[in-house]
Structures are given as C-alpha cells and as structure tokens.
Amino acid sequence: MIANYHTHTCRCGHAEGTEREYVERALEAGLQILGFSDHTPQDYFDSTPRNRPIRMMPEELPDYAASVRSLREEYRGRIEILLGVEAEYYPRYFPRLLEMLRENGVEYMILGQHFLGNEVGEPYAGRPTLDRKLLERYAAQTAEAMETGLFTYFAHPDLIHYIGSKKTYEQEMRKLCRKARETNTPLELNLLGVREKRQYPHLAFWQIAAEEGNDVVLGCDAHRPQDAADPGSEAWAATLIERLGLHMLETVPIRRLSKDI
Ligand SMILES: [Zn+2]
Ligand SMILES: [Zn+2]
Predict the structure, then answer these.
(1) How much distance in Å is there from the Cα of 89 to the middle of ligand 2?
(2) Closest ligand relative to 37 C-alpha
(3) DSSP label of 58
(4) pTM for the whole thing?
(5) Distance between CA atoms of 203 and 103, rounded to whole angstroms?
C-alpha cells in the first residue's frame, strides 16, 4: 500500500493515540498518502443526538481540522496528509453536513453507512439479520449516496450482515456494485474487518464485485496508531484480490468538497 485514506482519531470516542502517532506509523511503513477520515459529527436539528462513542461532537470539528492541517504542513515533502471524514448518508441531515464540512475545509468524504434512514430508531447495519427489507434499504440508500457524486469511495460496502437467502443477497449486492461502477465509486476492502475477523470482507460480495469489474481500494480503518499501516492484513487482502481477479487501485482520485485547506 502507498496510500491509506481511512484513519480515525480519539475524538470519535472509540479510537486511541495522537494524530502524530498515526502519521509516524504511516511514514515508517512507507506510505506516501495518509488520509484522516474520522467519523463525522452530525449536527441534528430535531432529534436526540447520538454522538459519542460513535463520533466527535460538532464543536470538535474545527480542532480536528486544525490538527490535521498543522501536521500536513509539518510533514510536507515527506508524506501527503489529507483531511477527510467517514460520513453516513442520512438524507435529512445531508445538506447541513455538507455545509459544516465545507465551513471547516474538509477535503473529502468516504461513505460508511452504519445505520439506515436517518439513524435515529434504526438498527445497526452490521447486526445479523434475516430481514430482506434491511438489505434492500441498505442497497437503495447507498445507491442514493453514490449518486450525489460526493463520496471519494465506499468504505466496507459489505458491512450489511444479511444472513438470509444467497440469491437475495446476490441480487441486491449486484445492484450496489453496478451503481458503484456507474458512479465511478471505488469499493473499499476493509482491513479492520480482516484484523478483527468481522463478517466483512464478505467473500460472496467480492465475487460479485469481481464479476462487475469494480475498482477496489484497501483501507486500514485505523483506530490505533499501529494500524495506520497494516502489512499483515494487506497481504491477506492481496491474496484475495488476486484470486478473485479484482481490479485494485493504489490511489484514488479525491472528490474534493473544499479547496481552501
Ligand atoms: Zn470507528
Ligand atoms: Zn472507519
């Protein structure tokens, strides 16, 4: 790997270490690009906010941005540091989210759809389910997200944990993969899932992605500095990619939200 665009900070409430430690680890492992993409704050208007321990508070965003910007200056010429967020696509809050990210000079978003609808009252998408409706909603909602053209890539698209019929899974995930191709959205093979032996990367999903010719990118999804680069999981993923004949990208084009960093 020469680039990792998926890195968290302690502000989300479930990651550890300082930003500098993540940068040092990335440098040591020979990365050329390190993107910070902490869980984006959500500025709710009309419902109970569900922030920590899932994500930073809105008032922490300026400090997050300042910290990443300052490291970017300090390490200029040695490693390229990008300021991003991992964002959910919640239609009700999306316009306000974009406004808040742009106000703070956030450069890019990766899509991490952990909940459906607008989150409140909705289940975690990674919980095992036999409910076909949840799978269909996940595919439809993330398709809408990709259609905005604003997400640089789609993180752990195989987070949805549908354990019902294989045929239904294939049908819905094929729609998702086709939408990703149509919108030029690379799909992330998530190395946190590899490290923690989660339900993703899900083999059936990546078989479909290979058939559909999707672009694939590796993401460390680091919640600890030592995971800002992860050669062990990377080797495992590389084998899978080669075996399935997936098309891997070493770097991805950033879909910029703001220019003024
Ligand atoms: Zn996280
Ligand atoms: Zn993440």
Answers:
(1) 14
(2) 2
(3) G
(4) 0.96
(5) 39
DSSP E strands, the chain: 3-4, 33-39, 80-87, 108-111, 151-154, 187-190, 215-219, 247-248
- Residue 159 CA to ligand 1 center (angstroms) comes to 13
Q: Which ligand is nearest to the CA of 154?
A: 2
pLDDT tens track for 53-62: 789 988 999 9
Query: What spacing in Å lies between the alpha carbon of 40 and ligand 1's midpoint?
Result: 10
* pLDDT confidence bin for 47, thresholds 50/70/90: low
Ligand showing the shortest atom-to-Cα distance for residue 193 = 2
Q: Is the pLDDT of residue 253 over 90?
A: yes
Structure-block tokens of residue 255: 């879909």
Q: What is the pLDDT of residue 35?
A: 98
Dihedral sign (CA 185, 213, 205, 2):
negative
Could you give all domains of the chain from N- to C-terminal order, each with its CATH number?
Answer: 3-248 (3.20.20.140)
Q: Is the pLDDT of residue 52 over 90?
A: no
The token duo for 55 is 């994500």
